[in-house]
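User: I'm writing a short report section on ligand binding and want a predicted complex to refer to. Could you take this sequence and magnesium ion and write out the structure as C-alpha cells? A short remark afterwards would be nice.
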Amino acid sequence: MKHTKSLIELSGVWFDYHPDRQMKEQWALQDINLTIQSGEYVVVMGPNGSGKSTFARLLNGLFIPTEGEVRVGDFSTSDDLGQFHIRRKVGMVFQNPDNQIVATTVRDDVAFGLENLGVPREEMIPRIEQALEVVGLVGFENREPAHLSGGQKQRLAIAGVIAMNPDIIVFDESTSMLDPQGREEVRELMKELHQQGHTVIHITHSAQEAFLAERVIVIAHHRLQLDCPSKDLYNQSHLLEQWGLEVPLPIRLRALLKDQGLEINEPIGNSDEMVAQIWRYLSKT
Amino acid sequence: MNSVMIGQYIPIDSWLHRLDPRSKCIFVFCMLILIFFANNVESYALLLFIGLAGMVLSRISFLLFFRSMKLIIWMILFTTLFHLIFTQSGSAVLETPVLTIYEEGVRQAAILSVRFILLMTFASLLMFTTSPIDLTDGLESLLSPLRRWRFPVHEFAMMMSIALRFIPTLWAETDKIIKAQKARGADFESGNLYRRVMAYIPVLIPLMISSFRRAEDLATAMEARGYVGGVGRSKLRVLSIRRSDVLLLVCFAIVATALFWMRK
Amino acid sequence: MEISFQDITYTYSTGTPFEHRALQNIHVQFNQGSYVAVIGKTGSGKSTLVQLLAGLLLPTSGVLQVGDTRIHSRSKKLGEYRKKVGVVFQYPEHQLFEETVAKDIAFGPKNLGCDVAEIEHRVVEAMSWVGLSPDLRDRSPFELSGGQMRRVAIAGVLAMRPDILILDEPTAGLDYLGQRDLLSILKRFHQHFGCTVVHVTHNMNEAAELAEQIVLMSDGKVISTGKPVEIFRNLPYLQVSGLDVPDVTKWIMSLNQNLSTPVSTEIYELSALADELIHRWRRGS
Ligand SMILES: Nc1ncnc2c1ncn2[C@@H]1O[C@H](COP(=O)(O)OP(=O)(O)O)[C@@H](O)[C@H]1O
Ligand SMILES: Nc1ncnc2c1ncn2[C@@H]1O[C@H](COP(=O)(O)OP(=O)(O)O)[C@@H](O)[C@H]1O
Ligand SMILES: [Mg+2]
Ligand SMILES: [Mg+2]
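Assistant: Sure. The C-alpha cells for the complex follow:
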C-alpha cells in the first residue's frame, strides 16, 4: 500500500467554549481522532447541537483545541504562524447566506478575501473572473447581495472562498437554509469542486446528501460515532435512527416489511438495489 | 411607504454616475456651503439652474427628486410659518386682525425654503448617482490624510460599508418582525404616545438580538476569509480622476466666482 | 369559515421604480377546517398570498372573503380580524422578545384580552402541545437550543387558538427529528381543534403527508389546486413549476417500471406502501 501523508489530522481533540466551567463529559467535542486525505469528499452528519459547527471551526483554526492537536498539511492550528497558512488552505462556507457576504456588490465580495491576502490588483481581476465563472455568476458582478436568491448568495460565498485557492473547502450546513433549487445548485457545485481536486467536507443532516459523498462521519452526543464509506451506510442505517438522523426511505421500508414478516436480508447499497429486491420477492411466487 | 427609498442609489448610467465619487463629494460639499453664502435672487437662480442641470444630467426622473422633497416639507412649512409670524421688519404686506405679515418675513421665508430645497437637491444628486460603495471609497480616500493623527480611516470605511450592506437585510427583518407581532395581536396604531412607543419593544428586542447574531456570524466569516484589519491589504477598487472630473471642478470654480461677483 | 380569494392582485411598492407584481388574478377557495398546503418555487408568491390571508397586507385589487369578513384594497381596522388568524413565519424564533418562555407565549393571549387565569391555562396547554417541559417556563427563551426556541415561538401562536393557522415554511432549518416532531404536532393540533391550516412549504413530502388540498403556485399565479393525488399525478406541470413529486411517489414510480400491475401512486405514507407490498406478497405466495 502506498503511504500518503494525511492532509488533515485530528489527534485526541477535546474542545469546549467554557472548559473551566464545564464537566469534561459535557464538552462540546470529545476525543476526536480522525484523518482526512487530500481529495476526499466527506460528509459529516449529526443532530443539531452535537458539535458539527465546532468541529468545522477547529479545522481552520477559528477555534483552537482545548486539548489535543489539529494539523493541516505541515502546520498545526495551535501556533500563530500555522494559523496564517491554514486560513489560506481551508476555505469555509457557512449556513446563513445573508450573514457571510461582506461587501455591497458581488465583485467586491469575491475580492474581499484576496484583498485580505494582499493579492495585487492585476492578479485579483482574473482570479475574480475565474471564480465567478466556476460558480456561474458571470454577469452578476455589479449586483447587490440583497438582490440575489438564497442559492445565488451561497454560490457567491463559494466564489469568495475558491478565489483564494484553498485546498480544502468546508461547508457548514450551507444547504440547510436554501430552497430545493438552491440546494441542488450548491450540491452540483460541491461535486464539481471535488472533481477539480479540492478536498470537500460537507456538514449536513440530509441523508440524501450523505450519499453524494465517498465517506460519511457521524458526530452525535459530542463524539465521533461512525466513520465509514457511504456505500456501507445503507446497512448501518438502523444506527442513524438512534442518533435522530434521517434513515433512507428504502431502509425504513425494509424495516416496516420486516415487522410484517417479509424479511429482506440481502445487503442493500442503494435505492435501486432495494427496488430490485422487491421485484424479486414479488415475482418469486 | 417604503422609506428606505429616500436617498437611495438609483443604478442607471449617466455622466454624473460615472464621475469620481471624490469629486462629487467635494463638489456637493462646497455647493452646500455656497448655498448659505448666496444672498440674492440672481445667485439663487443660478444655483437652482445648476441643480436642474444636475437632475437632467443624472437622467433620473424628476418625480424621485420631488419625492425626496417630501422628507423636508415639514421643515419648510415650519420655518416658513415661523418667519411669517415672528419676523417683524419691513413694510406690512398683509394685515389681518390677528396677524400682520411683513415684507422681511416673506423674504426670509422664501430664502430659507429655497435653501432647503437646494440642499435637498444637491444631497439627493449625490446619493442617487453614487453607489454606497463608491461613496465609502471616496470618503475613505478623502479622509486618508487623517491617518497621520491616528484616525482609524480603514475601520471607519469598513464599518460604513458593512452598515450599507446590511441596511436592506435589516429593513426586511424589521418588516417581518412587525408583521409577526401584529399577527400576535400587537397594536402599533392606537393609544397615547407612550403606549405607542412601548408597543415597539417587541420589535426592537428581536431586532437587536438578530443584529448581534448577524454581527457575530459576519465577524466569524470575515476571520475565516483571512481578515486581520487594514494592514497588508490590497484593494480591488482604485479611484481615478478623469477629464470629466476636472471639468466638474472647473465648472465649480466658475460658479463660485460668479456667485462671488453677484454677492451684495 | 370559508376562505375565498376573488380575483386578487397584489403589487409591492406601487408607483416606484421598484414596483413589483407579486400576485396576479388569484382565484382560489379553502374549505372550513381543511388542511391546505401551498407549494411553489421561491418567489412564486406563497408568502404574499398568506400575508394577505393574515390581514397583514391589503390586496391591490380584488376581494378576499373570509367568513363574513370582506377584505379589499381600502379595508380598515383589521385588528379584530387578525385575532382570528395565527401566523407562524419562517424562522419564528426570531420574533421572541420576553424574559421568560411563559411570558413570551402569553403575549398573544394577552393581546386578545384574555384574563389572567385564561392566559395561564393557555400557556400551560400550548407548552404541552409543542412538547416543552413545564420546568422551562421561567427560563429565558434565548438560553434554549434552536429547536426549543422554535417550539416556544409556535406555542405563542397556538396559544391564541386561531380559527385559521398559517405556517410559512415552519420546518426550515430544523434537523430531521425536529421536522418530524413539528409535523406531528401540526397534524394533531389540526385534528383536535379543527381549525383551517394553511401550510406553505417547498417540501413535497410534507405537502403529501398532511394536506387535504394543495395549491400550486408559479410566477404569482395559482396554476393548479386540488387533492394531493390530483396535483402529483401531473408530473410535467410540477416540473414546469420547478417542483418535484414526494419521495414515496418517486420510489413507487421506479418500482412500477417492472410490475405488471403497478402500485397506486396515491399512496403517500410509507406504512401504507409497506401494507400494499405485504398484501401482494401474501397473495402471491
Ligand atoms: N458560542 C458558544 N458558546 C457556548 N456554547 C456553544 C457556543 N456555540 C455552540 N455551543 C454549544 O456547543 C455544542 C455544539 O454546538 P455546535 O457545534 O454549534 O453544534 P451543531 O453545529 O452540530 O448544531 C452545543 O451544545 C452548543 O450549545
Ligand atoms: N417587501 C417586498 N418588496 C418588494 N417585492 C417583494 C417583497 N416581498 C416579496 N417581494 C417579491 O414578490 C414576489 C413574491 O414573493 P413571495 O410572496 O415572498 O414568494 P415566496 O414566498 O413564494 O418565495 C417575489 O418576486 C419577491 O421578490
Ligand atoms: Mg451548526
Ligand atoms: Mg416565502
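A remark for your report: The CA atoms of residues 84 and 162 of chain C lie 5 Å apart. The first strand of chain C starts at residue 3 and ends at 12.
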